[in-house]
Amino acid sequence: MAIRAEEVRKLRERTGQGMMECKKALEESGGDAEKAVEVLRKKGLATAEKKSGRKAAEGRIFAYIHHNGKVGVMVEVNCETDFVAKNEQFQAFLKDLCLHICAVNPRAVRREEMPAALVETEKRIAREQIAGKKPDNIIEKIVEGKLGKWYAEHVLLEQPFVKDQDRTVQAILTELITKTGENIVIRRFVRFEVGETATE
What pTM was computed for the model? Predict the structure, then answer.
């Protein structure tokens, strides 16, 4: 089917992808813009996975203090070149990431960084909640499901992005990797709140 230039332009503005990529995605999806977005996201994820092994030794540390002066966030995000570190999209991502951390208060960047004792406690609580109510052969599946929801609440990359609740922070990061063509890694963050003390 013939794809109109206007449709390609709108998809490009929405996704930040190149004209040819947008046209191919629209052709592949039969002109359905929503399906075309999904096509581009899947390709973006594949691109991001290919780049994940590349060294990301450049980047920036960004700090944000909330307007009330009671919450502050500092984050380190790495990329491959200083050129991308200075890029407006990269800088905007840093700012949005700090706003997200300020608002949502994650505990770790990725699930492997969650304290093992905390994970075990959540598993134990989940098991106790369903003990005797379900057959043993499906208890573990239910526990894993509950744990997955818990990770989505507390792990930065798995949280719904504060400015777009339909997408995770990982999805936003993947999109940035696709746009810049570089491996980008959220290395670490720290969040300060007046009156709070570290418990872990």
Answer: 0.69
